[in-house]
TrEMBL record:
Organism the protein comes from: Billgrantia campisalis
Annotated protein name in UniProt: Probable butyrate kinase
Record's subcellular location: Cytoplasm
One term of GO molecular function: butyrate kinase activity
UniProt similarity note: Belongs to the acetokinase family.
A Pfam family assignment: Acetate_kinase
EC number: 2.7.2.7
Length: 369
């Protein structure tokens, strides 16, 4: 029997995660999901992220070929949205202007900028719609959250909005509460972290990958400003070197030479004192950030959610539950769930529950830009 299927594409630095879902009415079922690995040596051939488009499109097309049955009907595609200017939460229809912006003038370089171009590259020849859903530039910060203390450097939002909102919807469903009334802290704990407060379903504040946040498996997080300024002017590193040290080679990797937290757990179990200290410090910073984000909601929360790759670890979730459960009940939704969240966004549009926005779309002036 012919099925309607939706393709989702989530480009990361070293992988492109693809998934195919069958859509039956308002139900989605996973047909196939694969994390397509891109070898460092192959990626080194490209001078920038935009140059990877042809190569990654071919990888996605090969995934689709093997995942789709000949009689399946591909009805829509969704890609993870990138480092765009600030946008409202929701689904955005991909058009040529959006693809051009994501490829050539994104606010920051990030693999997720390829989500829209990849989705369009597959969708356009087939004449089917393509969307991005809750891109990382979703900006719902409250006015007070935007002030940093120095007028030239306002606070701004770059956040794992897709997974955070999907987790919020899941908790709201479990509690039988409308999502737009939910009050929760969501800690997305992947290679990068976002720890965010959902107030009435909006991301009112979050720790931000560009500013203050706990250190992560590969990112340095918030650093003391004066020593950082001294280092910038010391001549020890040029700008690209320092950026690489802070994003990609910082955090756990910088201290211990691996981003693999399961390996760190084995080292801790084997008695490695430095690994234990770094692991403890990461959890300490996470629980401090959860406490700070809970304060944004006056500690009146429906729940705290632990999600992302690190939420697969029972050691991590047990320790974070122990230190935060007095604030609110803690739910654990392991993994980043981004492919499903993308497909759910498309389904909301196809079902008529949500009207997609059309690029260009923006909130306010784009503080921080
Ligand atoms: N079972 C696990 N226990 C501990 N850490 C894990 C586990 N599974 C994944 N991780 C860690 O999660 C991080 C990757 O998170 P993930 O959300 O998959 O990545 P990304 O941010 O790239 O989407 C890595 O540091 C990895 O070591
Ligand atoms: C929150 C900005 C996007 C980001 O950092 O994503 P990854 O952690 O997937 O690199």
């Amino acid at each position: 029997m012919s099925r309607n299927v939706i393709l989702t594409i989530n480009p990361g630095t070293t992988t492109t995660r693809c998934a195919l879902f069958a859509a039956e009415g308002s139900r989605l079922s996973l047909v196939s999901e694969q994390s397509l690995g891109h070898e460092e040596i192959r990626m080194a051939e490209f001078s920038g992220i935009a140059d990877q488009l042809g190569y990654r499109s071919a990888c996605v097309a090969a995934f689709l070929d093997q995942a789709k049955r000949p009689d399946d009907r591909l009805i829509a595609i969704a890609g993870r949205g990138g480092m765009l200017t600030p946008v409202p939460a929701g689904v955005i229809l991909i058009n040529d202007e959006l693809v051009d912006f994501a490829l050539h003038t994104p606010v920051y370089d990030h693999a997720s900028n390829l989500g829209a171009p990849l989705a369009q590259a597959i969708a356009a020849p087939l004449g089917i719609p393509a969307y991005i859903v809750d891109p990382v530039s979703v900006d719902e910060l409250t006015p007070v959250a935007r002030l940093s203390g120095f007028e030239e450097i306002p606070r701004f939002s770059f956040v794992h909005a897709l997974n955070i909102r999907a987790c919020g919807r899941k908790l709201a469903g479990e509690l039988g509460k409308p999502f737009d009334e939910l009050r929760a802290v969501v800690a997305h704990l992947g290679a990068g972290f976002s720890i965010a407060t959902l107030l009435d379903g909006k991301i009112a504040d979050s720790s931000n990958r560009m500013e203050i946040s706990p250190f992560t498996p590969e990112r340095a997080g918030g650093l003391p400003p004066l020593p950082l300024i001294e280092l910038c002017y010391s001549g020890k590193y040029d700008k690209p070197e320092l950026l690489k040290k802070l994003y990609g080679e910082g955090g756990v990797y910088g201290y211990l030479g691996t981003k693999d937290i399961q390996k760190i757990e084995s080292r801790v179990a084997a008695g490695d004192a430095k690994a234990a200290l770094v692991y403890d410090a990461m959890l300490y910073q996470i629980r401090k950030a959860i406490g700070a984000m809970a304060s944004v909601a006056n500690f009146e929360l429906d729940g705290i959610i632990l999600t992302g790759g690190l939420a697969n670890s029972a050691i991590i979730t047990d320790r974070l539950i122990e230190s935060t459960r007095r604030i609110a009940p803690v739910s654990v939704y392991p993994g980043s769930n981004e492919c499903l969240a993308l497909a759910e966004g498309v389904l909301r549009v196809l079902d008529g529950q949500e009207v997609p926005m059309t690029w260009p779309v923006t909130v306010g002036k784009g503080v921080g830009l």
